[in-house]
Write a structure and sequence with these properties.
Order of helices and strands of chain B: EEHEHEHE
Distance between the termini of chain B: 19 Å
Distance between the termini of chain A: 36 Å
CATH superfamily of chain B: STAS domain
CATH architecture of chain B: 2-Layer Sandwich
Structural class of chain B: alpha/beta
CATH class of chain B: Alpha Beta
Largest interface: A-B, 35 and 35 residues
Radius of gyration of chain B: 12 Å
CATH class of chain A: Alpha Beta
Helix content of chain A: 25-40%
Order of helices and strands of chain A: EEHHEEHEE
Number of helices of chain A: 3
Number of domains of chain A: 1
Number of domains of chain B: 1
Oligomer: heterodimer
CATH architecture of chain A: 2-Layer Sandwich
Shape of chain B: globular
Radius of gyration of chain A: 16 Å
CATH topology of chain B: Transcription Regulator spoIIAA
Chain lengths: 155, 104
C-alpha cells in the first residue's frame, strides 16, 4: 500500500521550503517525521527547532488519523525555514477541529493518577511560539511557528 | 528505533537509539512493560534518541508508574535538549527523572 502521496518539494535558500501531501497513517507520519527532520537538519536548523517542528506535525496528524477519522485522506504539509523561526502549515479536509481549544491534561495530579495520554496537542500548544487556526473551503488550516536561536546543547 | 538491554542485576538499563515515534513506541513497548514489572529500577539511556512523541512518553510513563509502585524509579539518562524540554513541558519531570553524565 502506498502510505503517502509523494509530492516533496524541498527548496533551499533564505526561506527554504518543504512540501508534501501525506496520509495520517502511522507509517506515513513516521516517514514524514524522518523527512522533515532530515530537511531541517540539511538547512542547519538547530536540534530544538527541528525536533519541535516535527513534533507538531506528528501530533496533529496522529490526532487527525485517530480522532478525525480521516487517515485515508491526504493532508497538505508545508514547512518554511526563516532566519529566526520555522513555520509550518497543515491543511486537511477532516471535520472542523481547532486544536487550540482541546482540553489540557491534568498535570498536577498524583503520580498514580497522572494520565498516560492526552499530551500530544498540549505539547503542540506549549512548544509553538504561534498557533493559528482557520476553517476555509471546508478545510482545517493550521499554521504554527517554532522559534529558533536556542543554542544546541547536550548530545 | 534500536534498543539494547542490560538486565543482569536488580535494575535494568535500556539504551535507545533512533526516533521514539509511533513505530519506535512499538519497539520499546514490550521490553519496557516486561522490565518495569520485574526490576526494582529502570535506567533509560536516551542520548541516541533524536525524537520523542507523546505516544513514546506514554510508554515511559506507564513503566515509571509500574516501577514506582514497587518503590523504585525510572531515570532518563542524557536526553538531548529537545527531548528533555518535551519531558519537562509535559510536567513529567518528577515521574521521569532526568540525569546527565551517568554511565550505564
Amino acid at each position: 500500500m502506498q502510505a503517502t502521496r509523494a509530492k516533496v518539494a524541498a527548496m533551499t535558500g533564505p526561506q527554504a521550503r518543504f512540501e508534501k501531501n501525506t496520509l495520517a497513517t502511522p507509517e506515513a507520519i513516521s516517514e514524514l517525521t524522518e523527512e522533515v527532520m532530515a530537511f531541517l537538519h540539511a538547512q542547519g536548523v538547530e536540534v530544538r527547532a527541528t525536533h519541535h517542528t516535527a513534533l507538531v506535525l506528528n501530533e496533529v496528524l496522529t490526532n487527525l488519523g485517530t480522532h478525525g477519522g480521516c487517515a485515508d485522506r491526504p493532508a497538505r504539509i508545508a514547512v518554511i525555514v526563516e532566519p529566526d523561526r520555522v513555520t509550518g502549515e497543515i491543511v486537511d479536509n477532516g471535520p472542523p477541529f481547532d486544536p487550540r481549544h482541546a482540553p489540557d491534561p491534568i498535570l498536577d495530579a498524583a503520580v498514580d493518577d497522572r494520565p498516560v495520554g492526552g499530551l500530544g496537542l498540549y505539547l503542540v500548544r506549549k512548544l509553538s511560539s504561534s498557533l493559528e487556526y482557520a476553517r476555509r473551503n471546508d478545510e482545517n488550516c493550521l499554521t504554527f511557528a517554532i522559534s529558533r536561536g536556542t543554542p544546541d546543547q547536550g548530545a | 528505533m534500536q534498543i539494547a538491554i542490560d538486565d543482569a542485576g536488580a535494575t535494568a538499563t535500556i539504551t535507545m537509539v533512533g526516533r521514539l515515534d509511533i513505530a519506535g513506541a512499538e519497539v520499546v513497548a514490550l521490553p519496557l512493560a516486561t522490565l518495569s514489572g520485574s526490576k526494582s529500577g529502570l535506567f533509560v539511556d536516551m542520548a541516541g534518541v533524536t525524537f520523542v512523541a507523546s505516544i513514546g512518553l506514554r510508554h515511559l510513563v506507564s513503566a515509571a508508574k509500574a516501577v514506582g509502585r514497587k518503590g523504585g524509579r525510572l531515570v532518563i539518562r542524557n536526553p538531548n535538549v529537545a527531548v528533555a524540554e518535551v519531558i519537562t513541558t509535559s510536567g513529567l519531570s518528577d515521574l521521569l527523572r532526568i540525569e546527565r553524565g551517568g554511565a550505564s
